[in-house]
Amino acid sequence: MRVDIIGGMTSLDMPTLRNPAPVEAVGLGTEDAAVYAGWFACLAEPTRVRLLHQVASRPAGITIGELSDALGVGQPTVSHHVRKLADVGFVTVHKDGTSTVVVVNPSCCTGLPQAADVVMGVLTPRPCCPADLPDDVAVRAMTDDDWDAVGRIYGEGGAGALATEVPSRDTLDDRWLPGHRWVAEIDGAVVGWAALSPVSDRDCYRGVAENAVFVAEGMRGRGVGKALLRTQVVAADEAGLWTLQNSVLAENRASIALLHSAGFRTVGVRERIARIGGVWRDTVFLERRSDSVAGADGA
Description:
Blueprint: E1 3-6, E2 9-12, H1 30-42, H2 46-56, E3 62-63, H3 64-71, H4 75-87, E4 91-96, E5 99-104, H5 106-119, E6 138-141, H6 147-158, H7 169-175, E7 181-186, E8 189-198, E9 208-215, H8 224-238, E10 243-249, H9 253-261, E11 265-276, E12 279-289
Parallel strand pairs: 9-10
Antiparallel strand pairs: 1-2, 3-5, 4-5, 6-7, 7-8, 8-9, 10-12, 11-12
């Protein structure tokens, strides 16, 4: 499996499955299943879906009258659908003078995508890491002797879909966190690397980092990216980093699945956030929260 994560965006070739073993499923609890069923049932009505879209597009709130005008539906019908959405927690309702104002519940914006991931089995319990690692891939800490290979592999990734120029060694050395730089070897040759970069120089975000993984051309389907990602997240947990994050091109489901296998969850979609080859692209924002967040408490 090949992973190219450039500036936080990921390009991952679809994996080739060879006699895949069944994954041991963690049962979805009855109570959670009932909650999710209620959410999906609530949205099994087109007018209600359109109404929720209108409300979500107006985070400050929208009145029943404005919703009626926008949808071309009578106010009694709008009020009926708003009550249904409020019953499951998608929206809240309050009075402003004589008007009834409908406001989206912010948790709905992330809860719905995560619910779909849970039901489809792509969101696994945390902490977790990719399993079934290849026997012939060895991951070790990066040294100064690896810079040439790292730059070459970075360039191979940059020549692909994301077309990113290779930063200088000094730039990468300044950007990457010490102690979180890894290379993967096969038969003694460097075939991939992984690194973490801080997302902010503010102390309150000292435990938050963006992950990057690159795999050399010709090494697809050999589990290099999987091995690097596992080492990366285990080391981050042990170091007290409480959040890893990444942005992935929205259509890149294989890459999203790989990150999910390491405990990342989908937070949301960022529209027209990346401009590649003159074309605006959407990305999916993911994060991995460590179950051990001692660093967040100052330890």
